[in-house]
């Protein structure tokens, strides 16, 4: 151990707080903070740019604890640095209901927590988005205003997760040189030695993906400092710092073993660790000279921030206003009128196109009026139609580009979009097939947990995609996405609804899924209306308000439902079609509105080319569902709709069975 | 082009059929078959061991088209080799309803299709399981009976997917030398050149993961043959053959472009391609000398198979019987009595343990009586309790091991288990936390599409896991897993139910999820019953059969429901608790049985520490749900149950509100 006494004391302050908090909670992960304390000390007190008094300073460096289980490393550091929200009482409330110090770092809980981590690999996957956002905004607003680094601490678990490969191959390809990943190379996982389950040469792997690599002893603060500073010098590659550490460093019997990963040390081991480390103060009581040293380090960037404020103040007014608007996430003044004008055009034009095409038409307008959108696709651009004339690619050589060629990396696309949104200044949207939300689900769930404005453009949204067959046909997905709390799932029926859903997704302060058809659909919304009917989630799109039968439908099936009205009329049955572009928004309306839409029908039918699960609430005991009850099949779309009985005729039968 | 005339003709037969079938279907992917035809020709006619007349021969080499969109490569080859089911009429019915020639290869549709592929990365991820099964069975039954290779063709898309990293790092770690992946290195993806989205040095990446690598021109059959034979010689590493190819080889204007990936060539381009390739015969009419050469090659392994049959016939009777039982997937004669005996012991012992512990107790019995189980965990063995004294690890040096240390690779775990199950001879089970089914969902869906006996041991199944917080607490997952067609989702309430669910999972011819508690639960099934009540999915576990109120519950909430009975009784309300270990099995029962369980209650309540979506069908209009309506939180389990109102008191209120 070559660290100076003060350096040791500062790192031990983290170790001490981490051990104490986990012990008090009788739950948590002391191993990582103890092993990584030296790295965190150097990173936070000597290298990173941030200001605890202005924690949301737009040009701060970002820190991401990808190994989120080591949350006490972050909480202890934030406390030591002087982040106001992170009090010693919060540390004492670690893992208790209502505290800011949750088991894993939760975005929104306290400043300094840049993203929610815990599910392994997500942080490193987010970080690529942060670094993309930085590079893109720097290209737009200049390095006077945007010039910061993204720092990640990742464990062996993060590197074993598949999404890490998607992340590092994308970051290397894009030459995101201001991204630095510090690998806590402690050779321990929950089940024992890493070598039990993995033999990957990580250095060679990162090099193969175009990364700069540095190997150090992560317990030697001088080596750490040199590595971090060297990483900042990398001009055209992201950097991996492979830092050899010892999990649970200082614990007399449990260090360097999986026993210290995820359980309190216990009184004896804790006492032994403190003795071995030279920690002679009571639990949660950091000596003032150590605390003062940390707090002083916390003020290091005050001048840099002041200079930055000066540069912002003296920037051209339009640039400054635009920068502030973008970081605040406000929409431009002409947003509403632009959408309304285009809606009027669509009402007049009545395009008969697939909703994926309608989405592209909407994007052509949106991308013009919102320079903050950054599109992309997981290698399905021509299918998702996520591109517009504005979306030149964001590349290693053109940081001004607005389109992410994510490659065949659905999971990383979603995770990177989380990072882009969390960074602020950009609105990410990205496409793949709806069925492949399965590949991205852990990151989609995090969009929802963190309430981030991430827009998923998910095309080929049913058996309507046809011949590609069951592996490509979503069946359960609309229901299983609606099942995720705080996620908006839109399935628009025509061009006008698609525009309205896009408007809602852009205005929402939460993530959205747009489920869009591959097949062409007629225009249904052919009359001018005021406002955005889709905003209420569901509304009567056709038929008599006081009809005997109500037919709920979404997307491509709204057309089928509307077609059934004539057939029903021929049987002397009055019916109406309720288009339900978003169940979530409909349930958020007043009971009065919902009653007014549903009416008091004698028959209820819902039709959607997916499973019934998410429809049962609307249908109740007597309503009937028309949709899928199994996986799909490979055949032309029309044949499949007939084969699976998703037809106007089926609607008529279902209505008549109830009357 | 250095191939002989006959070699070219044989490869062109594939190209021709692929072009014709895609053109006739007016849908499909001609690019891959045209680029990879030479590789397939050499692999199928010179290297692989199989017998079209005995397509399920246990010791055949396995072929996996990981790039499943190139399905016509496989169908054309199977037809040419003489697989009976794959007629020329089937090729003409490519992508039509009811044909064996679905858009992507579908397991069960025709012999020679070893696994369902299409979602990228899944095939290469399956292949690790195939190779594990081969090595394990060879160790058990000897190389006289088990000695075959697993061959994979993977595209750039497969290698970009994160799951490929999990697959190759696991395969390299386990030194699966009989696994050979041929990378169709054509530098084209749907959006254009690979170099638009990826710059990975794949050779270096595979080397970093412990693979043998070979680089060849994939259009030169001599190079292909040498590479395939060299790969077979690898003693301690899986092999990557990086085969440079040209997508759509032969197409005059579209070759080497993404235009030939996923669309028919069109009449003019098709004619031009045939002219350029020297294909002068009509569509679907392979000249007899070429067809005969293929058919002759298809018989190459007849003698090898005969010899193998001889070795099997002359093996020790017990070994032979056991081998045949295992490959047929039959359970041993003492299976039922073993389970019954242990159930009697549990009824007597009344253990108060978490259901994850009950699962381990069940496994201790199951692993003794079923040598075919191969367990594992994604680095959570001590949490999932998936190990027993029998489960020594399967490693690079001990192929007899029965436990897969999957590492932090949930997706690969699921995909490998698919491969193990598809191989036959073993029953795979593997564990992680229930919330991380999200990471494995694409592979879980394939378990269900393929109806494979794969058992997912998913512990920490609710907010009951406590302090780890919302990222680790499943909320929507029970509903979203029930949403997958053909998947059994079990959530047992105590040790006896857990054993019963394990029995059902082992006996099912489809995949199962066991959702298990972290927290201890009392014994509820304390009386001897005949048969397996869990087999009917739901049954009255407590209370009066003709009660006024019925309370549906699963898992840890059954205890809460049973506790409410006393409270309800104090209010003068008769009630019963219906334990629902499997909704799927309950819905599969007769209406009569379901009516008998539910009765005609005046009040219905369902309680589950998840969302309500999958309960609405049982609850109908009037029933009430007690569970989660948001993400969870970080706190001790008891505090969370109270905080979210999942309590006996809430049940009483919900019942009384209905009476």
TrEMBL record, chains A, B:
Report the active site residues: 410 (proton donor)
Any idea which GO molecular function terms this record carries? Answer: metal ion binding; transketolase activity
* Keywords, sorted A to Z: Calcium, Magnesium, Metal-binding, Thiamine pyrophosphate, Transferase
Q: Name one GO biological process term.
A: pentose-phosphate shunt
Q: Does the keyword Acetylation apply?
A: no
Q: Where is this site: Important for catalytic activity?
A: 29, 261
According to its UniProt record, what is one Pfam family this protein matches? Transketolase_C_1
Provide the Transketolase-like pyrimidine-binding domain boundaries. Answer: 353-523
Task: Tell me the residue numbers annotated for binding Mg(2+).
Answer: 156, 186, 188
Kindly list the cofactors needed. Answer: thiamine diphosphate; Mg(2+); Ca(2+); Mn(2+)
Q: Does the keyword DNA repair apply?
A: no
Catalyses: D-sedoheptulose 7-phosphate + D-glyceraldehyde 3-phosphate = aldehydo-D-ribose 5-phosphate + D-xylulose 5-phosphate
Which InterPro entries does the annotation name? THDP-binding, Transketo_C/PFOR_II, Transketolase-like_C_2, Transketolase-like_Pyr-bd, Transketolase_bac-like, Transketolase_BS, Transketolase_CS, Transketolase_fam
| PANTHER family from the UniProt entry | TRANSKETOLASE, TRANSKETOLASE 1-RELATED
- Known function: Catalyzes the transfer of a two-carbon ketol group from a ketose donor to an aldose acceptor, via a covalent intermediate with the cofactor thiamine pyrophosphate.
In Swiss-Prot or TrEMBL terms, this protein is called: Transketolase
The organism that produces this protein has a lineage beginning with: Bacteria, Pseudomonadati, Pseudomonadota, Alphaproteobacteria, Hyphomicrobiales
């Amino acid at each position: 151990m070559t660290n100076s006494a003060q350096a040791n004391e500062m790192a031990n302050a983290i170790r001490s707080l981490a051990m104490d908090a986990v012990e008090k909670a009788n739950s948590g992960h002391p191993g990582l903070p103890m092993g990584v304390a030296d790295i965190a000390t150097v990173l936070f007190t000597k290298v990173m740019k941030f200001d605890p008094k202005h924690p949301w300073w737009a040009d701060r460096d970002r820190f991401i604890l990808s190994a989120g289980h080591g949350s006490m490393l972050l909480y202890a550091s934030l406390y030591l640095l002087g982040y106001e929200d992170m009090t010693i009482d919060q540390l004492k409330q670690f893992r208790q209901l209502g505290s800011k110090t949750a088991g894993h770092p939760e975005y929104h809980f306290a400043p300094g927590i840049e993203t929610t981590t815990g599910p392994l690999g997500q942080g490193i996957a987010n970080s690529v988005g942060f670094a993309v956002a930085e590079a893109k905004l720097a290209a737009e607003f200049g390095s006077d205003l945007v010039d910061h680094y993204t720092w990640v601490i990742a464990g062996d678990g993060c590197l074993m997760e598949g999404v890490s490969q998607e992340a590092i191959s994308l970051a290397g390809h894009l030459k995101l040189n201001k991204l630095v990943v510090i690998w806590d190379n402690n050779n321990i996982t929950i089940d024992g030695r890493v070598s039990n389950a993995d033999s990957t040469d990580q250095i060679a792997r990162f090099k193969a993906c175009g990364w700069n690599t540095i190997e150090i002893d992560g317990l030697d603060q001088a080596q750490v400092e040199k590595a971090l500073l060297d990483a900042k010098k990398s001009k055209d590659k992201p950097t991996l710092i492979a830092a050899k550490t010892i999990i649970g460093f200082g614990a007399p019997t449990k260090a360097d073993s999986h026993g210290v990963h995820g359980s309190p040390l216990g009184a004896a081991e804790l006492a032994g660790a403190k003795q071995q480390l030279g920690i002679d103060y009571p639990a949660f009581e950091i000596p003032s000279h150590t605390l003062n040293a940390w707090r002083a380090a916390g003020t290091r960037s005050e001048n840099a921030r002041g200079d930055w404020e000066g540069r912002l103040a003296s920037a051209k007014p339009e640039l400054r206003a635009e920068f502030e608007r973008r970081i605040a996430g406000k929409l431009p003044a002409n947003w509403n009128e632009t959408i309304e004008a285009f809606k009027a055009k669509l009402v007049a034009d009545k395009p008969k196109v697939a909703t994926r095409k309608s989405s592209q038409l909407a994007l052509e307008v949106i991308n013009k009026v919102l320079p903050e959108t950054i599109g992309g696709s997981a290698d399905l651009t021509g299918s998702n139609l996520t591109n517009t004339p504005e979306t030149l690619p964001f590349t290693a050589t053109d940081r001004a580009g607005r389109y992410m060629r994510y490659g065949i990396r659905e999971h990383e696309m979603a995770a990177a979009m989380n990072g882009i949104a969390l960074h602020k200044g950009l609105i990410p949207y990205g496409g793949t097939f709806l069925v492949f939300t399965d590949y991205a689900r852990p990151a989609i769930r995090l969009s929802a947990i963190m309430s981030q404005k991430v827009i998923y453009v998910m095309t080929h949204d049913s058996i309507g995609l046809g011949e590609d067959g069951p592996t490509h046909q979503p069946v359960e997905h609309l229901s299983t996405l609606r099942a995720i709390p705080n996620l908006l799932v839109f399935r628009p029926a025509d061009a006008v609804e698609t525009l309205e859903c896009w408007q809602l997704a852009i205005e929402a302060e939460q993530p959205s899924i747009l489920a869009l058809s591959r097949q062409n659909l007629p225009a249904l919304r052919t009359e001018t209306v005021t406002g955005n009917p889709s905003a209420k989630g569901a509304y009567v799109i056709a038929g008599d308000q006081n009809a005997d039968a109500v037919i709920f439908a979404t997307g491509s099936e709204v057309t089928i439902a509307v077609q059934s009205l004539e057939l029903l009329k021929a049987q002397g049955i009055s019916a109406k079609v309720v288009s339900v572009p978003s169940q979530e928004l409909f349930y958020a309306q007043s009971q009065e509105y919902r009653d007014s839409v549903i009416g008091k029908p004698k028959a209820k039918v819902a039709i959607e080319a997916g499973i019934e699960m998410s429809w049962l609430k609307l249908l109740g005991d007597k309503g009937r569902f028309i949709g899928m009850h199994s996986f799909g099949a490979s055949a032309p779309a029309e044949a499949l709709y007939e084969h699976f009985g998703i037809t106007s005729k089926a609607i008529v039968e279902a209505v008549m069975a109830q009357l």
